[in-house]
Amino acid sequence: MNTLLIVSEPDIASTIQGDALLLRGGWHEEGEVEGGKSWSHEIAPVHLWWFPGKVLSEDHLDKRYEQISGFVVGEVIFLSRHFAASGQPSLTLHPIGVPGESPIGEVAEYGGFKGDAVPPNQRFAAWFRRMSQAGEEYGLIPEFDMTIETTHHGPFLESPTMFVEIGSSEMQWGRKDAAEAWADVISEGLGLDGGDGLGDWMILSLEEQSNAKIMLGLGGGHYAPRHTDVIRKTKCWAGHQLASYALEMNKPEDPAWDPILGELPTGQWKHAIEIAYNKTAEAFPNGKIIAHLDRKSFKGWQRQAIKRFCAELKIPIGRTADFY
User: What is the pLDDT of residues 182-203, one digit of tens each?
Assistant: First the structure.
């Protein structure tokens, strides 16, 4: 699979990761693309693009790079910073899109289009597990949290995409040890070290794809600890992860309403689940997508509504044991 790594020049946590990769060697400079330098790797089909500006509102960067460079992009990985008001040091990664926002189709505040999502990068789960290992190897744990985030923000692309990040404040964004940890993950994950790489869905046989389990996370907070736990404990693959705030649900006012037999609640939640499922299915052809509910984050009537709607979409719901 052809991979495009994107560095954002104004983002120190992005450039420090890019520098760590370039210093490992094996890169050959290509032509400039939209005013930013680019490199190709001598071992694997990977390009690194040093984009000169911020990226959240820069839609279609995959096709823009492809049209100018001639490099057919199969997946995109953004090297980035993570901000959190808590300032908690972290390494984190996540799919992108804003499926829980409305009005559908409008440009979202932090990029992308409201109600839409980008196909999740298939390497997401495998890289989380390798990231956690790298955190141990570089002595970042317990100072740093190793976590996923739920799907959020832009830009909009057609290729399977994820952000890999150093967080959560200026004190961590320039940390070379964190950048080296990510450089290990990226190098091994893309086969820049001469290995097979990690999380490449397209190298699986049809039988292996049909037997693979892909988690669609529903509910919980922004850092999705219960979905993270499934990824950590099993060898599952992972698609979009929707926090409870992306599943707006309005309970019918009729006091006699029955959550099992009555009409489904209104709100953005059904569209969010459907688009997250469809984009995950696009990224994982032939795979078995299983929803994982953070049950404690929902009220009983909300759980019933989600179960009914998932049944309509023929999405099975599983617990941790179902993802082994």
Answer: 999 999 999 999 999 999 999 9
Domain ranges of the chain: 3-201, 207-323
Cα–Cα distances in angstroms (integers) from residue 110 to residues 55, 106, 153, in the given order: 10, 12, 5
SS3 content of the chain, % helix, strand, coil (to 5): 35, 25, 45
Class of domain 3-201: alpha beta
Q: H or E segment at 16?
A: helix 12-22
| Structural Rg of the chain based on CA atoms | 20
| Per-residue pLDDT, 281 | 98
Taking 70 as the pLDDT cut, the residues of the chain under it are none
Cα 165 to Cα 44: distance, rounded to the nearest angstrom: 22
| Cβ atoms 263, 307 nearer than 8 A | no
Closest CA to 162 of 218, 231, 106, 238: 238
The model scores a pTM over 0.85: yes
Across all residues in the chain, what is the average pLDDT?
97
DSSP letter at 317 equals B
CATH of 207-323, one of 3.40.50.10700, 3.40.50.1220, 3.30.420.10, 1.10.530.10: 3.40.50.10700
Q: Is the separation of the CB atoms in 47 and 3 below 8 Å?
A: yes
